[in-house]
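Q: I have two molecules that I believe assemble together. Could you output structure tokens for the complex as a whole instead of separate predictions?
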Amino acid sequence: MLFHKKTRVAALAALAVSVALVATGCAAGDSGSGGGEGEGDGGNLSITFLPKNLGNPYFDTSNAGGEEAIEEFGGTFAEVGPAEATPDGQVSYINTLTQQGVGAIAVSANDPKAICDALNEARDAGVKVVTFDSDTNADCRDLFVNQADSEGIAKVQVDLIAEQIGGAGEIAVLSASANATNQNAWIELMKEELAASHPDIELVEVVYGDDDDQTSFDKTAALLQTHPNLKGIVSPTTVGIAAAARYLQTSEYKGAVALTGLGTPNQMREYVEDGTVTAFALWNPADLGYLAAFASKALIEGDITGAEGDTFEAGKLGEYTVGADGVVLLGDPYVFDAENIGDFDF
Amino acid sequence: MSSITETTPAPASVRRYRDYDQPLWKRVLLTREMAIIALLVVVVIIATMTIRGFGQPITLTYLILDVTPILLIALPMTLIMITGEIDLSVASVVGLSSVVTGVLINGGVPFEIAAVVALLVGGIGGAINGFLVTVVGLPSLAVTIGTLALFRGLAVGLLGTTAVTDFPEFWTDLAKAKLGATSIPLAIIPFLVLLAIFAVLLHFTPFGRGIYAIGLSKETAAFSGVDVGRTKFILFVLAGLVSALAGIYYTLRFGSARGDNATGMELQVIAAVVLGGVSVFGGRGALHGVIAGVLLIGVLASALRLANVTSDVINIITGALLVISVVSSSLLAWLRTQRQTPAVKPSAESGAAG
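A: Yes, here they are, computed for all two components at once.
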């Protein structure tokens, strides 16, 4: 009886010890492989990407672009980030990178102000700071790599819809919420572009799906009923375009009403493959990461300081010029269609 | 070897009181709290020796800045959990007080007044919890899950997705300032003051004895003259007040008042309190263990981040540590009872054998 109890104790103890061993083994293994990455010695071209959060396909794509660029010029790539997209999580990582003394941080900010002090401490310690995708206040970073400007976003969508409906007819816009600043700016610019370049296209209505899948779906249905002559819909929001595509796919309007806007390849893949949508636009996150990496390199090597008019080479993307407020523009939005959508996973 | 323990029962005259079973040094050192403190020391030593960049003074600065809100909230949380209750709404109170401060500053109210109002809001939030738990008599788990959503909803509703970022520089600088030429942030001072107050309250006053008594047996405590309802109510109000203070600190440190500030922090606080040796069933725990628990989680996260370990793995390690610590403490307690029952018997037997 007593012996039996002792074996149970031993078994439990063994279990506890093995769990502990697994846990510590795990830690040791990771720190071993990770530690090597952080130690860039030659010229300190160690560049760390700090996305809004890890496990996000969009940032996986942009970080892969950054890694490709860093391999090209022989630096050290690392990627860290919080599990949740919170500013305080990012601050802990920025502090850690400051302690490690990396060459540059390429960060997509969860809050324009909250990570500012941490970034400025890093810069005081000699770390270069490049923001990409989502900017901080201009005084907290050396450069912002902007994925697209409003003019480019408005123009590419007008061009796409004009091409798809043959340059004439009624179109409508399915937006996010009525007070979304960026959406309204884009819609205003689209109106100007339509008036200037495509006078035969009439924008009959702007509806708001509130970036909610079901609302956007219902608004699409209502649009098509109220405007029987509608030839095209532009949805400059990823939620809206996917919901509208889902409605069109199963309706009589499939193929008859064109749809374009801003979307992500994973959401839009099936609609492009079955012909509901011909082409839509967004930027290429891989290029964004690639450019952020080259911008970091140019800052580390002192080729540029982030002042307006500075120019630097960015590998396969060519030469870039720093604009006002230290902003580098990636370029025109990227158009996804049946030809290239298979190359993207985000 | 221990087969000889199958013996006659001990004489009935041998009465032993468990507390005096062991010498003083054993009672002080062989405790759950000391085990966590020892583990903390071991982790700090190993990290300093093996991880590049850990042994710098700046590590201490960042560590304290990071864990101060958790340290603050852990104080009232320890007391609440010793009574056998729990408060899951603390992080939402942090968010709410942050937003209240921000909204008032936006409306042109001086920071000092905004902070006092935020503290009041935290106190009222705590009083709502306390009222529902003690007067209405609902379980604190259910009540504070409800107020977790309620306070967070209010916080997000007040500010929407915007953030207030214009705070007086004097105060934001103060939140990050260091003590003289040391690397210790000034934020440690309010914590130390509160620590002294809570330590005296819990360990050296009749009120504190009452807290333990409630955790061990509510009925016994009530019959012994402890006002159970009042004690719990006071503790929930304290938790609200201290969480609001943590919220003001959080706002100043990041210079940003947002509705989603400190989301999920309640779990970090509770994990640290449990790791520090407080029983979720109430009745046992001590503040020095809890402080060590908070620091242990903070030091581990800081060291692992410096070693380029990803956040998911850090979470796995912290979680595993928590499970192991809970399992091992019940295992040790069980082992002790197993050893103690026969331990009385062979003392008579071994005398006969040897």
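A: One point stands out. Residues 150-282 of chain A form a domain with the Rossmann fold fold (CATH 3.40.50.2300).
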